[in-house]
Design brief:
heterotetramer, A: 383 residues, alpha+beta, Butyryl-CoA Dehydrogenase, subunit A, domain 2, Butyryl-CoA Dehydrogenase, subunit A, domain 3, four-stranded mixed sheet, four-stranded antiparallel sheet, 11 helices, 46% helix, B: alpha+beta, 9 strands, globular
Chain lengths: 383, 288, 383, 288
């Protein structure tokens, strides 16, 4: 066991740092999805041109094909430099693209992958439905096959960037009467297709980031099915094999910076002399440190055995709840200034309000605990 | 000794809830009709403990908890205290340091200053939004110089009513979450049948019960001139603030994705709870 | 609503206080059940002779028949005077006796009730079984009817004072093959009957207070059945109607004293200047105060409507967990002296170790939350 | 960078666990045979990082976490540190202020004094029991005057091994609770199928994972002379202490009535956790 990096890795770190230092946009990324679109596209284009787009994509698909430790280094430096979130390109780069790489036909790959890498095509997700929530098996959006087309009816919800997206990774029920995980298909849906209505949803922090999407006899070509009709569950799950545990890196660095910022604030404002505040800040600092250790362990596990251990669920849960503790400390130090928040502000209050999603989206904290109990500890199923 | 509302109190409470349900539903919390203030005045809530009506603080706390549950304007608190302990008439906004909460339609505010109740005059200015979407605020350029009220009971009265508001706020969040847990299904069952959700709801009920009980005791302590009245009101406010914040958060968590949205109502009690925590908070030393 | 007491009630309080002040035993009650037996019997005898035994029992059965507010006053003064726990007499006075009053025949009452009141007969409970825990419906101890006798086989566990008790309130299955709540009977079991073996169990705090009881062809007369054969569930439940919410009073006063003692200690040792300790003590004081308010509310409810509301479950849960928070604060203030605890010590460490039972015995904290969620809030059943 | 044990480390760990399972089962924690010390010495645990064996602290921490899991004598910590940083030979008890822990069969102890490692000589006296049933103690009449060790790394080494013990202790409680939750039935099902119990087990696993990971990082930081090594070891000890205490409590709660008894083993990790929390605790200021 060691926590050191080789001279080559350290040199790579220098390269990352140098490039980031000179290329990070001067202006802040806008909060609202539509205002941010141009910003996101321009930044993605820059990353692409410098060879930093798709760092974990294979080189034959235009990616950088970095080793996992190099990915760690890039992501650490990226976060440390406070480089902007890739925003509208997130789904394409981290989810849609990888799914295509694993499952799509050569034609599908050739058409879509370059657009994603260059920031030319924005993707959004289409998994969750009103009433289905964390339960993917409960999908009710239907696709009826008519000739060489699929006719789609239904709705999706919590779709980030839906109103600016070009394509959607859409999971729907193509086999009438099928149950649970069977009869689902994973399709590429053109968001400009007639019959799609996007209803943006405002968050309680004020910005519009996700939307409800309605499908009224939307027709897409059968060719847009990825991985075969009725095979949607397997395709959706296959993306997980692409997840190598690096996803936590950026969060960890960001949380670490936030805690350091809070400690600096508490010192500057004399609040640190309150033993309760000092204690809680010290605790947060220890916990953030432990997340790095957990993440490194997880990544080492991937390197050694080819896949992350079940401990990834633990990192996910702990990071989510730790983030909320950090955000609460943030507003605690603000005192009454908390009250001056208004929709559209981008500050600690915004982070706090937005942070509730961390234990809701992508499987609630309750479901994460079920998973840890059942899959990792082997306790009998509850449901 | 009797810590349950009597029949008269229950009747007043029922009338209060009925009016609030009709006129102050939660989904209008951020845009209430201008006539609402007159309606509240007509209901008599601002003068319950004045000589004219002569009700006790226990009854008043009971009704103000209901106002709190519907996220009624916070200036109902300052107006009621001003009506009881000063000559001021009409609406009185709530002063919180240099912030004047619910500052419209008046140029007078009441708040606590170093633990004493005092009146503040301020220039009417365009009110700005606050975190609590049902409370607009005016921020003064400098800390105001209040005219302190003579009676020390005014501060206790003010603190009691803020506690009552927080109790109602905590209960609003708890009730909303429990209703949602009964109705919303996942994995083919109402989510309230899952122990994790059920226990969150149970804990919300515990917190509500704890702070409401202490509120009753505190109100009676004020009515009965109990020597420990300061402690009891302080304890009530602290427990109610905690309940309002924790229930407010749990409510959003139980609502899941929909709880994160502006259009759902789940965020409203939490934001109100954050506002109330700054109004007459209880310092540690006051309880020791 | 008011928290005042009438002049008559205040005079009654004076009487309680005066009597307690002059009669409380000088020596401390021993911790181990067998050493405490003589002490407990003598104290009960004293209470009886002065008319303080069975304060809530009807006068016709030798009780005091106090009003509920008078009971509150007596219990408050009893705790405030730090009068000793009634120990071995607890089950007879608070559980066995009341059950007999509601359900027993005149002959049973005439024989047993006076002995209980005078401290002449010690009772123990016999409900829980190994493997059944909180689930009374899972009782497996069997009683076979043979002529005018019941022949008992099986075992019970967590029976406090079993090895010093004269009688046991024993719930067993008298109908072969019956399920859950059916076919149970509530019987008076003579603890001196042949075939009974008592295995005392040491607690992790060192003393022996409860035991496992084994029944090997134990014969008791059919006359000892209370409330009719096969009617045991109803008899066991009937005791609840005797519970008027006063049971929390003593705990509340005791917790209040403990918190005041801790604050005094923290002041004396200069620990209160630590903001964390001051904050937590302040919180405990507020919470203990709220328990009194909840208890008063509950008792007022009983007075007004004849029975306690569902809120009693809340008081039970909150008091149990609050007690544990108080005990943790107790050992926190001790620092390293905590390590010097040894079996048999009666101090804060003992209270802390013993206090784990509060969220286990009589229905775990988990089950209390189920009850609050289901019976009070109307959420659907989990099991 | 690699934070997983390599094959050699895994092999050493397996050998450690095998020996401990055979020779130091938890049900003998309070009365261990006199020969146990010699057995441990033969296993080489007291000299892992000395020149003779030359293993790194990462390997040592891995093995000491296993010792901690079986509630091994705490003097294994002080003995290993003394063997590495002083000329002392044989068993060295653990000094905690005027308390000498696991004080039998030696008259030398090692502990921290104002953050520095130091050796203490004391008169052998009849050892008395402590809260931790597997640790006897001798209480000196006065605070001892230690001979401080020159190397500042000795204190870090000592703190690291106490953290490893606490990690093992936390895991012991978690594993015991999870096993029990699979086996024990209520209402016709294993209690581990109830979400409330399942989530308690999940939280225990989270705490164990968090502190074990930080332990690995801290050990590597000591091996690699990381400038933040003080922080990392302090964080590891704090997180491990918290995990050991909270898991220890949850373990008893999950065991229910049986968990309250002396004869069950559930109380042993909790009592050990309480002891460890006083050995080289991490002060708030060390982390800020």
């Amino acid at each position: 066991m060691d926590i050191g990096f080789s001279p080559e890795e350290q040199e790579f770190r220098e390269q990352c740092r140098d490039w980031l230092q000179t290329h990070i946009p001067a202006e802040k990324r806008p909060l609202n999805a539509d205002e941010a679109l141009d910003f996101d596209k321009a930044w993605q284009r820059q990353l692409f041109e410098a060879g930093w787009a798709g760092i974990n994509w294979p080189e034959r698909y235009g990616g950088r094909g970095l080793s996992i430790v190099q990915q760690v280094i890039w992501l650490e430096e990226y976060a440390r430099a406070r480089a902007p979130w890739i925003g509208a390109n997130f789904v394409g780069i981290n989810h849609g693209g990888p799914t295509l790489i694993v499952n799509a036909s050569d034609a599908q790959k050739a058409f879509h992958l370059p657009k994603i890498l260059k920031g030319e095509a924005i993707w959004c997700q289409g998994f969750s439905e009103p009433g289905a929530g964390s339960d993917l098996a409960g999908i009710r959006t239907k696709g009826r096959i008519e000739g060489d087309e699929i006719v789609i009816n239904g709705s999706k919800i919590w779709t980030s960037f839906a109103h600016v997206a070009d394509y959607q990774e859409l999971v729907l029920r193509t086999e009438e009467g099928s149950q649970r995980h069977k009869g689902l298909s994973w399709v590429i849906c053109d968001m400009k297709a007639p019959g799609i209505t996007v209803r943006p949803i405002r968050k309680m922090s004020g910005q519009v980031e996700f939307a409800e999407v309605f499908y009224d006899d939307v027709r897409i070509p059968l060719d847009n099915v990825v991985g075969g009709l009725g095979n949607g569950w397997a395709v959706a799950m296959s993306t997980l094999s692409f997840e190598r545990g690096t996803g936590f890196i950026a969060d960890q660095v960001k949380q670490s910076q936030e805690v350091d910022d809070l400690i600096a604030t508490a010192r500057a404002e004399g609040l640190i002399t309150d033993d309760r505040i000092a204690e809680d800040l010290a605790q947060l600092k220890a916990e953030v440190s432990a997340v790095r250790a957990m993440t490194y362990r997880n990544i080492s596990e991937v390197e050694r055995r080819g896949q992350p251990g079940p401990e990834a669920s633990i990192i996910r849960l702990f990071t989510a709840e730790l983030g909320q503790r950090i955000e609460r400390m943030g507003i605690r130090l603000m005192g009454e200034r908390l009250l001056d928040f208004r929709y559209g502000d981008d500050d600690l209050v915004h982070d706090y309000l937005r942070g509730f999603a961390a234990t809701i989206a992508g499987g609630s904290a309750q479901i994460q605990r079920d998973i840890i109990g059942e899959r990792m500890l082997g306790l009998p199923r509850s449901r | 000794m009797d810590l349950t509302p009597n029949d008269e109190q229950e009747a007043l409470r029922t009338a209060t809830v009925d009016w609030l349900a009709d006129n102050m539903p939660l989904d209008q919390a951020r845009t209430r009709p201008a006539s609402i203030w007159q309606g509240m005045e007509d209901m008599g809530w601002f003068g319950l403990t004045t000589g004219a009506m002569g009700l006790d603080h226990a009854t008043e706390a009971l009704l103000f908890a209901e106002l709190g549950r519907f996220l009624a304007p916070v200036s109902a608190i300052s107006t009621a205290v001003a009506a009881r302990w000063s000559d001021t008439e009409g609406k009185v906004a709530l002063a919180l340091g240099e912030r004047i909460l619910d500052s419209g339609d008046t140029e007078t505010a009441l708040g606590l200053f170093d633990g004493k109740a005092g009146l503040v005059s301020y220039q009417a200015a365009a009110a700005e939004p606050s975190l609590d979407l049902s409370t607009a605020q005016t921020i003064l350029d400098a800390a105001p110089e209040p005219a302190l009220l003579g009676e020390s009971e005014a501060a206790l009265h003010f603190r009691l009513l803020t506690a009552a508001y927080a109790v109602g706020c905590a209960e609003a969040a708890g009730a909303m979450a429990t209703e949602y847990a009964k109705m919303r299904e996942q994995f083919g069952k109402p989510i309230g049948s899952f122990q994790a959700i059920k226990h969150m709801c149970a804990d919300m009920a515990v917190r509500s019960q704890v702070c409401r009980s202490q509120l009753y005791y505190a109100a009676c302590a004020l009515d009965g001139e109990d020597p420990d009245v300061d402690f009891h009101i302080g304890a009530a406010k602290r427990l109610a603030d905690q309940a309002a914040l924790e229930n407010g958060r749990a409510n959003i968590q139980i609502h899941g994705g929909i709880g994160m949205t502006d259009e759902a109502l789940a965020h409203l009690p939490l934001k109100r709870a954050h506002l109330l925590q700054f109004v007459a908070p209880t310092a540690t030393a006051e309880l020791l």
